[in-house]
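$ fold --in a.seq
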Amino acid sequence: MPLVVALNMWQQHVRAWITFRRSERLGIALLVLLVGLTWLIPILFSRPQSFEEVYRITAVQIDSAVHILQSQQNRPRDAKKFPSRSGSSFQPRAPRVELDINEADSAAWERLPGIGEKLSSRIVRYRERLGGFVAAEQVKEVYGLRDSVFLVLSDRLVVKPGFVPKRLLLNAVDYPSLRRHPYVSHELAKALLAYRKAHVRFSSTHELFELVVADSADIKRLLPYVKID
């Protein structure tokens, strides 16, 4: 008996939840109808769009694209542009052209990347005052030459073996000639002349290290450009 009562109560609760009034059933029907119309109207009144309309491409543009594709497919493959490493048409990359920094004129310098007309002329003038480059690193001493440009060019700049720069005769050179050299300051020129006057003459280039106005690094840099006559 208690079980029957419980079942009846459960049925009453279920009917209360799932039973709709007439107005509610009418609202649900209208909602279903609106959803159906929303889905059917675009299908009934729309027309199929062509490929051109969808992507906004004209027929002339399509014909032009087809013509380009056909011409590229029929064009023979250029062996120079697409070399085969296994075939005979492969050509290794040509080595970089080296520049003799003591023989190159301003036009040859200007052809290098990062070297303009003014800088190329400045390099040549500095080389003439110096008496020639004994090492490629000396090019960095030219005013206006950036380190980044030198790094790009460093593997192209060479000094031929056996190159001998122009040298200053220590026992005959005068003050103006000394001062024209980039490595000789006013103090060093005066000290050289004073030492020569006191000792009559230089007997060895190693005597330059006795000059107190210059450190050993400056003297070592100058040594390739002086000699005893």
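$ fold --in b.seq
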Amino acid sequence: MHEAAEEKFVDTVNAIIRRKNAQAKLQQQRKRCGYSQKELAEKSGVNLRTLQQYELKTKDINKASGQTVLAMANVLGCRVEDLMEYSVEEDDEAI
């Protein structure tokens, strides 16, 4: 029983590390469209520093205003949902 708890802990920590090291969906979409951060900031009207924080995941894009995310999605030609970050735990809870 004790070993099972340790395995779960290790799996959880590894999942967190993978999420933190993965590129943000915003960054993936921006690069796919060929925009620099500065270009996306100018076209969307979103502050450059804010955009950078979303890409670094130091600021949670899931808590951004709908207007902010919609502005970036419109410029990138994608859906708002394509920019949101979802964790495995959130997906499991929805089931």
